[in-house]
Every structure is written in structure tokens, then in C-alpha cells.
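B., you asked whether I could sanity-check this one before it goes into the benchmark set. Here's the sequence:
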Amino acid sequence: MAGAAQLSRIAAIMLGVRDLPASIGFYRDKLGLRVIMQEPALALLQCGNIMLGLSPRHMNAAPLAEAVEVSFGVDNLRGTHTALEAKGVVFLSEPRAVTPTDWAVHFRDVDGHLLSLFGPEGKA
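And here's what the prediction gave me:
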């Protein structure tokens, strides 16, 4: 496809939320993401090179929420797991090995979106 544009990265992930202030509080205060823009119907938070958008308008697609998982890469899964538990994040299970070198653990945000941590096991 000569001259065709090539997709090179994911710029943002948008999540539908019921209560924007509560969702901002979860991602900012518990997960430590930085709010880079906030309006009455949209907030954008920075997570590495990807923006996470929170939007009440996206709730129309709520039945699809179970088909999506946002996975946050971490350098020390057990340490991050312990730190987030201390902030009140409730995990769905204990961390487990998912590849020969990486571990994962799942949790949900205030709207029920499936989230996970993914990375080397590390130490608590």
C-alpha cells in the first residue's frame, strides 16, 4: 500500500464512566495517574505515552465493557500490588505468573472496568 498511513501507536484509551469525579479520584489518587485535562464531560490522564480518557458519554457502550481490559505495565508487580492495596484498591485474585518472566493481577475501577498490572514479579 504505497503512500498509505501506518498506525504506529495507541494514543489514548477511552473509558465510559458514570461518575466522572469519582473516576478521576480513583485513577489519580489510587493509581497515581496525572490529570492533564479536565472538562465537565471528559478527563484525560497521562500514563506513560498513552492518555486514558474518562467520559460519561461513552457509557452508551457499557455492555462492551466486559470485552475490554486495560493493562498497566509495572517494573515490580508485587511492590505495586502492595502499594495499591494500601490505597484501598481491591484485587480480584492474588498475583500469578502468566508468562515465564511476567506476572499479572486484576482489579476493577469504580465503574467495573477490568484493569490489570503486568510485569516482572519483583518483591513486595
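One thing to flag: The domain at 12-119 is CATH 3.10.180.10 (2,3-Dihydroxybiphenyl 1,2-Dioxygenase; domain 1). Otherwise nothing jumped out at me.
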